[in-house]
C-alpha cells in the first residue's frame, strides 16, 4: 500500500519490518517439543472452530410448485467470516499446519481478491500468526476493512496478474508461508466427506421431494468448490451434474471448452471472488459437466432479483450462479422435467454496496442490467425464458 509521500509501504509482520528490508527466515526444529506443543494447540483451535460453527442453511428460492422444479441456495454467508471461503480457509490452514509449512511467528501470505483473505485473517488471528493479503487495488473497501479488523494487512497490486508473483516474493522476503489457495484448494479439501459442502447439501435435501439434485451450480475462483462437488457426486455414485458459471474477463470457460490448460484472460474479473486471468491449478475441468458464460450485467441483475425474492442481499458471484441456475430451471420446466437444483449464496451483499448495488458504479462500468432484469422478471412471471 502507499504511505506518506506516495512511496510503497512493504507490509510486514511488525512495525520494524515495514521498511521493506529483508527479514531473516524464521526456521523451526520440527522435533522441538515446544514447536510440537504449539502445533497441537494450533490444530486444536482450528478444528474447534468447525465444532462451534453450525451448518449453513439451505434456502428455497420461490418458484411455482406446479413447475416441478425446486431451486435451493446454500447460504454460505452465515459462516463466522461471512462467506463460502471460511470452509476453504479452515482446510488450507489445517493443510499448512499438518504439512509443517505454517510456523509460529512466521507470516501467512495469500493472493486473494478478498473473501478468502478475510477468512484466512480470521484463522491466522485464531492461532496467533501474522497475515498479509496481496490483493487487487479494486477490492471492495469493506473486504479490506474486514481483513484489517481480523489483524491482517492489505498489500495492493494494480495488475491482477501480479498477485501470484508478489505474494510469493513477499513470503520469501519475510520468511513466511505463501498459502496459495489457487494451487491447494482442491488438495486441502476432503472431498470424500468429513462435513464438506457437498455432503452437507445432500444431508439437508434428504427429506425434500427431490433429494438428489439434477444439477449443482457453482462458480469458480480457485475451482475448489466445483472440484469438491464433482468428485463427491462421482464418489457417491449420484447422477447429479455439475455446472460452473463463469463471469466476463475470466478464462475458465474458454479453457474448459477448448481443453486448453494455458488459456488466459487479459483483464481482471469485475465479479469479486470468481473468474481468473489464468487456468488455476485447483480448477479441474474433468470434474465439470457443463459451463456457462455469464455477462456481468446479468450477475448484478440476478443478485438484485434475489433481494426482491427472499429479502437478502448477496455478492456478485451469487448472481453469476443464480443466473445460470434460473436458466437451467427454465430448460427443465420447458422440457417437463422434474427435479431439484442447488446453487450458492457465496457471501453477503453488504460487502458490495458501493459496487453491485450502486447505480453510479454500474454507469461507470458501462453495465446496463435492464434487459437481464426484465428476462428474470418475465421468466418468474410466465415460466418462459425470453
Automatic annotation (TrEMBL):
A cysteine desulfhydrase that generates hydrogen sulfide, H(2)S. The H(2)S produced by this enzyme stimulates respiration in M.tuberculosis, mediated primarily via cytochrome bd with a lesser contribution from cytochrome bc1/aa3. H(2)S modulates the balance between respiration and glycolysis, and also contributes to redox homeostasis. Probably eliminates toxic levels of Cys (which can induce oxidative stress). It catalyses: L-cysteine + H2O = hydrogen sulfide + pyruvate + NH4(+) + H(+). Gene3D superfamilies: 3.40.50.1100. One of its GO terms (cellular component) is cytoplasm. It comes from the Bacteria. This is L-cysteine desulfhydrase Cds1. Residues 56-347 form the Tryptophan synthase beta chain-like PALP domain. It is found in: Cytoplasm. Belongs to the cysteine synthase/cystathionine beta-synthase family. Cds1 subfamily. It is an enzyme of class 4 (lyase). Its EC number is 4.4.1.1. Pfam families: PALP. The modification N6-(pyridoxal phosphate)lysine is found at residue 85. Residues 1-30 are annotated as: Disordered. Residues 1-11 have a biased composition (Basic and acidic residues). HAMAP family: Cds1. GO terms for biological process: L-cysteine catabolic process to pyruvate. Its cofactor is pyridoxal 5'-phosphate. GO terms for molecular function: lyase activity; pyridoxal phosphate binding. Keywords: Cytoplasm, Lyase, Pyridoxal phosphate. InterPro entries: Cds1 (IPR047586), Cys_Synth/Cystath_Beta-Synth (IPR050214), TrpB-like_PALP (IPR001926), TrpB-like_PALP_sf (IPR036052).
